Amino acid sequence: MAHGKLRDPRKEQHWRRLIQLWNNSGLTVREFCARHHITRPSFYAWRRELQQRDAAGFVQVQVETNDQLARVTSIPTIEVVLASGQSIRVTPGFDPGTLRQLLAVLREGEPC
């Protein structure tokens, strides 16, 4: 979790799922960690790290080219992947107001 290292999206998604499970479990951190064979220091560190990432208001963006899609459509697209794992594909000429509304709706459905 060092800030100088590249993030592993699979690891982040794994910990997001675990913390969501804990939030819904009604268990104490100690009980939850024991049941899932997780160390409490790791749990607390990841919970803090994910809270900081979410509070920053930014998500990691990875630009990928999709040559096959480009050949079929010849329309460049931007894919926005949210911290929750949801993604949105945006094509040229999109309406910024509609995109803002969509992002607001998606944020409402995310856990706190």
Care to describe what's here?
There is one protein chain. With 112 residues, the chain is mainly alpha-helical. Helices cover 55% and strands 7% of the residues. The protein is built from five helices and two strands; from the N terminus they run ααααββα. Strands 1-2 form a two-stranded antiparallel ribbon. Helix 1 packs across helix 3. It is elongated and about 50 Å long.
Our count of domains comes out at 2
| Number of DSSP helical runs | 5
**Approximate shape:** elongated
Strand coverage percent? 5-15%
| Rg measurement, Å | 18 Å
Largest sheet: 2 strands, antiparallel
Q: Quick check: average pLDDT?
A: 78
Structural class: mainly alpha
Q: Taking strands numbered 1, 2, ... along the chain, how are they ordered across the largest sheet?
A: 1-2
Q: Determine the fraction of residues in helical runs and give it as a percent range.
A: 55-70%
Termini separation comes to: 21 Å
